[in-house]
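Hey, I'm writing a tutorial for new members on how sequence and structure tokens pair up, and I'd like a real worked example in the thread rather than a made-up one. If someone can provide the structure for the chain below, I'll link this post from the tutorial.
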Amino acid sequence: MISPLGGVIKDHYATYVNARTGQKEGHKARLVLQLFVSSIFAIVLADLSEGLVSVVVTSLSILTGFSFSAMFPIASDIRSGLPAPSYSEDRDDLERLAGLSSDFRANVSYFIPLTLICIMLFSFQLLDPVRPEFVNDLASRAGENQFHFEKVFACIKYYFSAFLCGVSIFFFIEVIYSFYRMCFTVLYILRIKEEYRASHAARERRE
């Protein structure tokens, strides 16, 4: 049984269909490339600066608001301002628009929680973990030189920061790619609506 989150991801990726062949697009190579790029950044950066995190979080917040305030109404009111269908071609266009509208809603359902998770991950970069007090007590009792608590804690902190950095960048790339595909879906919707109006007006002039 697919969880609600799993269903959202499945519905989102089901919208990636080749317009010519009708086959679903493969994303394994892209995801592997994202993983590789994020791993490289994690090794090189290991820790993100407060200024960079602030810029990224602000940008993601703007994208999230834009997806609601500007893009979603375009796809939700799909037949607004369109003449009533008169021919089979008109009905085909309306069916395509309805399908694209459904795809866009699936994309938004995936994009919003993904962006929020990404914001949360980048916000974690600002945290500066310190050794718990009980660890300090153990270190003082056992002897710092014997157990090397300082080095162990610094090593754990470094690798955790690098891991968190890599995961954050992976999600960030996925957010940007999803937003890119959403933009093209909206542009495709607008193009079909313009062609629908133009063809409908041309037929009326001929009649």
